[in-house]
Input
Amino acid sequence: MSFSTPIEDAPQTSVYLCDSSGGKKYHYSKGCRGLSNCQHEIIKVSLEDAKKRGKTLCGWE
Output
């Protein structure tokens, strides 16, 4: 019996942030409309890192 989780059922582990001092949200998609006003670099980080930085999930997700 296998207990491995199929890739499509695995939780998202990477998220996107606007790399600015005022950014408060993380995003599952780099194309999220919540990132459309980002005037800084959009960076990919782990979900754990985003939460450690105090980010919360974007309301558009």
Observations:
- The CA atoms of residues 12 and 34 lie 18 Å apart.
- The longest helix spans residues 47-52.
- Strands lie at 14-18, 25-26, 42-46, 56-57.
